[in-house]
Write a structure and sequence with these properties.
The protein is an all-alpha fold. It has a domain at about 35-98. Helices cover about 85% and strands about 0% of the residues. It has helices at about 1-20, 30-55, 60-95.
Length: about 100
C-alpha cells in the first residue's frame, strides 16, 4: 500500500502535472498538490522509519496510539488530496473540450 502511494505521488509530479500545465493556466493548483504529496510522503516515511526501529516488544499503548494517529493523518490527507485531484482533473477536462 505505501509503495503504491509513493509511486502514485511521484508519477503525478513527473508525468501528470507537467502535461496538465499546458491546459490549466495557473500553477497554483499544482503547488498545493505538490505540497500535499510532500506531506503524504513525509507521514509515510515517519511511519516506515518507526516500524523499522521498533520491535513488537517495544510497543506500548502510547507508541501504538502514535502509529494510529500517523495512519489516520495519512488517510485524511489522501482523501482530501484525492478530492482536490478530482476537481483539478474535472477543470482540465472542461477546458480541454472548449
Amino acid at each position: 500500500m505505501a509503495k503504491d502511494i509513493v509511486e502514485h505521488e511521484l508519477a503525478d509530479e513527473n508525468s501528470v502535472y507537467p502535461r496538465l500545465s499546458s491546459i490549466l493556466p495557473t500553477a497554483t493548483a499544482f503547488s498545493a498538490m505538490s505540497r500535499a504529496h510532500r506531506e503524504i510522503l513525509h507521514h509515510g516515511a515517519a511511519l516506515g522509519s518507526s516500524r523499522r526501529w521498533l520491535s513488537p516488544n517495544d510497543a506500548d499503548r502510547y507508541l501504538i496510539r502514535d502509529g494510529q494517529r500517523i495512519i489516520e493523518s495519512i488517510e485524511s490527507l489522501v482523501r482530501i488530496h484525492s478530492a482536490q485531484e478530482e476537481d483539478i482533473y474535472e477543470s482540465a477536462g472542461n477546458r480541454a473540450y472548449f
